[in-house]
Amino acid sequence: MEYKLTFKEYNEAMKTGKLLGLKCKDCGSITAPPKMVCRKCGSENLEIIQLKGTGQITTFSTINVAAEGREAECPYTIVMVKLEEGPWLLGNITGVEPLKASMDLVGKKVKMQQATIFGGDKFSAGESARPLFALV
User: Fold this and answer.
1) N or C, which end of the chain is more exposed by having fewer CB within 10 Å?
2) What are the pLDDT digits (tens) for 77-125?
């Protein structure tokens, strides 16, 4: 079994502003971030697609202390977004003052603007990207 879309390829595409996912040719479900099989039916019959990067915030968390080994400006807010195509993704949000983030964020529409690049920390394999969302 081999990956149709590796995490490295997913990461590199995100750095250029493209959000990739996998569409199952058997059930039509969309999987993101990439997995070896469809998250719904377990099929290996997948194709790489580009996602719109638009969706709705389902929850959020404001981070006041960065993870050990991660250089980050705190505080910052992370959101869980249900994409229009179905998958749920974690990402940072821009344009929202972290200390003023409230439950009013839940349900708001967002669009991926670009990727936030992290240099890695003592728990990772190195540089990675995370979606950066903005309110629509």
Assistant:
1) N
2) 999 999 999 999 999 999 999 999 999 999 999 999 988 777 666 666 6
Q: What is the CATH number of the domain that holds 72?
A: 2.40.50
Distance, in Å, from the CA atom of 118 to the CA atom of 129, rounded to the nearest integer, reads: 6
Neighbours of 66 (CB within 10 A): 14
Query: Do both 47 and 58 map to the same domain?
Result: no
Residue 4 gets which letter from DSSP? S
Residues 61, 75 within the same domain: yes
Predicted TM-score of the model (pTM): 0.88
Q: What is the pLDDT of residues 38-61, one digit of tens each?
A: 999 999 999 999 999 999 999 999
Neighbours of 92 (CB within 10 A): 19
My answer on whether 76 and 112 are in the same domain is: yes
Let me know whether 17 and 75 are in one domain.
no
Contact (CB, 8 A) for 115 and 14: yes
- DSSP-derived 3-state class of residue 110: strand
